[in-house]
Amino acid sequence: MTAQQGSGSPGTATAGQRGRGAGRATRGGRDTYTPQTLLSVAVRVFNERGYDGTSMEHLSQAAGISKSSIYHHVSSKEELLRLAVSRAIDGLFAVLDEEGAVTGRPLERAQYVTRRTVEVLAAELPYVTLLLRVRGNTDTERWALERRREFDHRVAGLFAAAVQEGELRGDVEVRMATRLLFGMINSVVEWYRPDGVRQGGDGGSPYEEGPVGSGADIADAVVRIAFSGLRAQG
């Protein structure tokens, strides 16, 4: 996870707000797209095809507008990527400035940040999914990876402070603990869907259709599971 505050990411639609046809040109031919609706479509296509596997032609077809109309809003495909991952990054870093993240005992702060990180992931699911899939092939991807590392480092600092206070167990190395925690959190993008349909494979997959709870429910579960094992005993 990671984020750059003040990066200028637009207030795009949250996960599930816009369908595949949202924002298409009207019958009269006028372009009704805004930068926000275009970004929503681009994120969906990037997640479906992969960023490297997506061309401006793919985006044009998905949006139902011409490539020249896309260039009216953005200068390149990479600009769309930057806007998208900035939205996820800004949401994550904003958590670190919230009152619950900066006041109270280290354990309380670590639990708060963990819970809010999951809630941001659920609320901004397509954008965080894209952030977690960048591979460092472009300047924007390398920047996003660096910001993710910075976020992880700051969260690890909260865990280290809780260990020093004797609130979390000290026999598990802090970097390992935070990496395991983020592994659990990041896996949520693979199966959680706001519409309640869990994603899975064939046959005996444990992921089946049915209600799975809200983002807040998942956040509470992550906190309970993670900190029941990490909390200092005695």
UniProtKB/TrEMBL annotation:
<dbReference type="InterPro" id="IPR050109">
    <property type="entry name" value="HTH-type_TetR-like_transc_reg"/>
</dbReference>
<dbReference type="InterPro" id="IPR041490">
    <property type="entry name" value="KstR2_TetR_C"/>
</dbReference>
<keyword id="KW-0804">Transcription</keyword>
<feature type="region of interest" description="Disordered">
    <location>
        <begin position="1"/>
        <end position="33"/>
    </location>
</feature>
<feature type="domain" description="HTH tetR-type">
    <location>
        <begin position="32"/>
        <end position="92"/>
    </location>
</feature>
<feature type="DNA-binding region" description="H-T-H motif">
    <location>
        <begin position="55"/>
        <end position="74"/>
    </location>
</feature>
<dbReference type="InterPro" id="IPR036271">
    <property type="entry name" value="Tet_transcr_reg_TetR-rel_C_sf"/>
</dbReference>
<dbReference type="Pfam" id="PF17932">
    <property type="entry name" value="TetR_C_24"/>
</dbReference>
<dbReference type="InterPro" id="IPR009057">
    <property type="entry name" value="Homeodomain-like_sf"/>
</dbReference>
<dbReference type="Pfam" id="PF00440">
    <property type="entry name" value="TetR_N"/>
</dbReference>
<keyword id="KW-0805">Transcription regulation</keyword>
<protein>
    <submittedName>
        <fullName>TetR family transcriptional regulator</fullName>
    </submittedName>
</protein>
<dbReference type="InterPro" id="IPR001647">
    <property type="entry name" value="HTH_TetR"/>
</dbReference>
<keyword id="KW-0238">DNA-binding</keyword>
